[in-house]
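Appendix B. Extra example for self-study. Work through it before the problem class; the solution is given directly after the inputs so you can check yourself.
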Amino acid sequence: MSGKEEIQSLEQLLSKLDVKDLESVNKILYGTGCSKLEIPNIQVEDFEIQSYKFSCPREQTRLPRITRVGVFQNKTPLETWAPIQEQRQALHNLAEKAIETAAKANVNIFCFQEAWTMPFAFCTREKVPWCEYAEDAEKGPTTRFLQNLAVKNNMVIISPILERDEDHNDVLWNTAVVIDNHGYYLGKHRKNHIPRVGDFNESTYYMEGNTGHPVFETEFGKIAINICYGRHHPLNWLMFGINGAEIVFNPSATTGELSEPLWGIEARNAAIANSYFTCAINRVGTEIFQNEFSSGNGKPAHKDFGHFYGASYIAAPNGSRTPGLSRINNGLLICEMDLNLCRQTKDFWGLQMTQRLDLYAKSLTVAVDPDFKPQVIKRI
Amino acid sequence: MSGKEEIQSLEQLLSKLDVKDLESVNKILYGTGCSKLEIPNIQVEDFEIQSYKFSCPREQTRLPRITRVGVFQNKTPLETWAPIQEQRQALHNLAEKAIETAAKANVNIFCFQEAWTMPFAFCTREKVPWCEYAEDAEKGPTTRFLQNLAVKNNMVIISPILERDEDHNDVLWNTAVVIDNHGYYLGKHRKNHIPRVGDFNESTYYMEGNTGHPVFETEFGKIAINICYGRHHPLNWLMFGINGAEIVFNPSATTGELSEPLWGIEARNAAIANSYFTCAINRVGTEIFQNEFSSGNGKPAHKDFGHFYGASYIAAPNGSRTPGLSRINNGLLICEMDLNLCRQTKDFWGLQMTQRLDLYAKSLTVAVDPDFKPQVIKRI
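Solution. Structure tokens for the complete assembly:
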């Protein structure tokens, strides 16, 4: 544990400004397209709730396509060394509360944080017992559990888990499972880019995904999932856009010292560059492990992963965004959006039309040649 | 003219927070890698000066490669309808002061805003007299003028101008000229992506650039230029990175209502995603034209382009950034950086290693096929 006092949120600090100044700051930092959304007064003890909506002009030839998204950030409820079955059950219990609460607020699409059924144990480099958290994507206990909740609540659920692929020699993947609102397993996406950064030793557990950049066409919109470290890769975001995504979820697990100044930048830039909505979801809290581990930074071995700073948020194609959830507490962020805003933004900014994909298809093909020479101009 | 009072800067508003809160806000918003740089006390009336430096650990096998960059944002000094020769001369006079001032602070590389030798007249869609501002990139009066200043001050100068290409039928381009510190014309880059957004009618003047993504190898680092609207295109930023850029300048002209919430996001995301420094330079002030024009937004014809909000800033590969210059005044932003931070960041984050360029070269090649079908998963 870092021992220092974590601040509640950026927004809580900014709220100390006077009203007029705060309005100007918010306009520059967050744009003007987002406002509070009224939802039923729901009493829950386990997490905070924030709700917003993005504005969108009416069109003449299309009806609005209103969708409500819910994203959930949470601590692991038990000690990381509690038995696996108990930890998973505690997480399932919390998840059920979150989904039922989201349902009361008419959420249509719900997404958890990365590897939500387990502690983020990849810092340890231990295989035991963590590999035992892996589940079959289609028939594992978590998918079965969520299928019931999905059909009961008429909700699409995105469930990022550690996947065990029994059909291919028991290998592991970092995978997001998509369950549709009728409870059917719609498919899965495997994390395309795997970090080798600090405590993120994930490349010792699983490889780069082999599922491409699928977009899942649901009753509530065309959605995709860019898992965690993939948010650093603009090409990953781009391909989801090319495949037609309207909302891209970014379930993550990232810590303050490593990435906090980047957090508000990357998913939001992706929303702007690709004219779709993005939902950035981070873990929250500090996870302590039983055995000490080193972090490849010259410092002594220790038992915690640093502070997961939460601050989950949603960004719109026009560059507006919601405030962030808390940096320290469990939270459910609900956001209503009209998916028509995607095409409207494409028409307005013209980024797809002016994108010159053909140029870059050729440039990248040249660049990956081992004999590639960069285009450098210098005085001879 | 909008008539409303423009705020000084985001930073000026945030400075009303108490010291401890401001420190926390800055850490989240701007990272911790940037601090004030002491420079000689220089008295100038025409523009404000701000100076910063980015920190960078020492290496064992490479000496630090310290470079000082200066970027300049300015209003057009005369009325837009003043004679062309007078306007250009007034801008040259201001430029000379800026460069001489930067030289006193030991700046090595200097960059102007987009199309700095003229009003940003593309809003008017008039060809007369604006096309007359165009100059030959290599032998035009502005390049000749700057060559003298470059050699006198031992400074690389990037000069974004409207280019007249006499060798190819007199066509126009939006071009950045690079002059090395010995006064030699090093080469040019033509803007790759041309906007069709609101008053940015640039596609009626010039086409998408045909100079690829050149990186200019200078004595002070490998530099590139992503002109204005190209900052919305992650692939454009990417190719400069692939070609080895260490600093990418983004000379721009963009207005508040259109893009301000995006401004702090895009160039900074590019710095993070490509592990190089980026310098985002915006015009400042409101330019009024003699003849009214409409903006394609259903509103009455008018004579101004809206407020260019300045706020030029520099971002580092590790995600830290400088504060922004003023939203309302001319400004010179000076920043010292160790270019070794680029490779250090590549080693730390591993974004190039994990980039899977081969995957995307193939994916984009498939995507540009007119018969391309997106990867969509739906229940049958």
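Self-check: Chain A has one domain: 10-367. If your reasoning did not lead you there, revisit section 3.
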